[in-house]
Specification:
By secondary structure, this protein is mainly beta. It has 1 helix and 7 strands; from the N terminus they run βββββαββ. A 5-stranded antiparallel β-sheet has the order 4-3-2-1-5. It has a two-stranded antiparallel sheet with strand order 6-7. Mean pLDDT is 78; it is low at 67-75.
Length: 107
C-alpha cells in the first residue's frame, strides 16, 4: 500500500535503476495517472531539474522523519507534518552556511 502524496510534498527517490539518483530529494510538482502505474513529476532540490518517476520510486520525507523522530516528539509538542506551499519556516541547524540560520522564508 502506497502512502498518500500531494503536490508540494518533499520526497526521496528510492529503488531507481539509475542508482546515483537514489536518496536524492525533491518536491512533487504533480501526480500523473497512468495505464499501468501512476507516475510522479518531481523537481529535484540538487539540480532544479524535473524528473518523471514511477510512484513506487518515491517516499515521503515527512513520513520517514516521523518514524525516525518519535523520541523527539515531546520536544516539538507532537507536531510533525509535511511542509506545504505558503508555510513560513525558520532556517536552523546549518553547519556549513551558518549565516542562514535564523532567517525566515516562505515555502
Amino acid at each position: 500500500h502506497l502512502e498518500s502524496l500531494e503536490p508540494g510534498d518533499l520526497v526521496q527517490l528510492v529503488e531507481l535503476r539509475m542508482t546515483e539518483l537514489n536518496g536524492e530529494q525533491g518536491y512533487i510538482l504533480r501526480l500523473v495517472p497512468g495505464h499501468k502505474e501512476e507516475r510522479v513529476e518531481v523537481k529535484m532540490l540538487s539540480t532544479g531539474k524535473m524528473l518523471s518517476v514511477k510512484r513506487s520510486n518515491v517516499r515521503s520525507v515527512a513520513n520517514a522523519l516521523r518514524s525516525s523522530q518519535r523520541s523527539q516528539r515531546s520536544q516539538h509538542n507532537g507536531l510533525t507534518r509535511a511542509l506545504r506551499r505558503g508555510d513560513e519556516v525558520v532556517v536552523q541547524g546549518l553547519t556549513k552556511a551558518v549565516e542562514y540560520n535564523g532567517q525566515r522564508a516562505r515555502v
